[in-house]
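Morning. Coffee machine broken again, so started the prediction first thing and wrote up yesterday's gels while waiting. Chain of 435 residues, entered below exactly as on the submission form.
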Amino acid sequence: MNAEKLSPPEQICKFMSRIYEAKLTTVSGGNLSLKDLNGNIWVTPSGGDKGRYHSEDILKISPEGKVEGSKKPSVETGIHRSILADRPEFKAVVHAHPPGLVAVSLLRELPETMLIPQTANSVKNMKLAAYGCPGSEELKENVAKEFRDNPNSNVAILENHGAFVASEKSLMHAFGVFRDLDFSTRIQAKAQSFWGRPPKLISQEQLEYYNRSAVSELGVFKQETVSDREMELRKDICDFCDRAYRRDLFTQNIGVISARLDEDSFLITGSGADNAELTVSEIVKIQRDLAEEGKKPSRSVMLHKKIYEDNPEINAVIMAAPENAMIFAVTDLEYDLKTIPECYIVLREKISKFPFGSTIDRQEELAQYFRTRSPVAIVENDCYICTGTNIFNAFDKLEVIEFSAEAVFNGKLLGGPIKSITEKQVQEIKTQFGI
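Came back before lunch.
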């Protein structure tokens, strides 16, 4: 679904609701703004239920400062207007109090941005704004100053408060940057707590290689008709994207699903698609060395293609970065599968790690690994790759990975050490389940 086709009030209601549903703010916290083509700024009202706004609740402020609406503008409206005035390239601003970013604001520090490629690419020259009382002129000036004095910056963390994220593209983009930054910060916090030292980061050289190399090598073909089976598979992909988003296995921007259609073709989610509201028309069909005309597949499409070519028994691939499991992707810690029987039954012997960038330059090695070693792989500072006989089977592996990782993390919080299943108990599992 293209959210930008909605009216400004509808967009603001949609993304304020998403912020609330994603537990990135409280029922009364946070505010959004969106600038339209005529220079009007649309803003959320003061107070109210952030998860239940209606279009008529949203206020319009003209370029001259005239306010239209039945409610009082948010107390932070002045900050929004200053940012949008000082940086005319910006179209939208998001402000809220997500737990990860509030945590670093309490330390009066900035989170790492080079933990995963999504934040490394989207967060620019992040700044720390000095504390000010909410709604005060002091806070307005402290935040506006960071955006005004740093023309490349799109994020400001507020001391003991939260964050402001601005976008030159859209409100949807600003929300995506906001959520992924908080998500990355929570991974950073959990990894550091679990490992006892700062997590591993991506270097600038690695990021540049990743961005430069992840380009589709496919031609295009025109899709004439869609069979009933293909339509059902498209619906299945959309359904599991929605599930993954709602269960915090995907974010709006992070997460890819593909499924084999037949011997020569497969379907995959599109590049830049909104995982929260994916539609069947946004799914991209790949047929041999060609991609469906007018659509851009996920940047990982060539890896999916190689996996299907080399593994006829694999019919679905999911790539995701679930928060708790990513602890093991950004540290040197091994993901122990001998924790609970379900984990061992579903995931088998061992999950191997591959270096960052392997989705680009080790596609042959990964395809071979899935054929002979394990259905799941970890790519450092990037993702988990789960393969299966169908989407349900691959999704099951993803959920087991995340649930088990969260259990291990909670066990660590309870004082540990974690006690794994013994080799004798593993043999009992193998016998019982024919592994």
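The mean pLDDT is 93. Going to sketch it on the whiteboard this afternoon.
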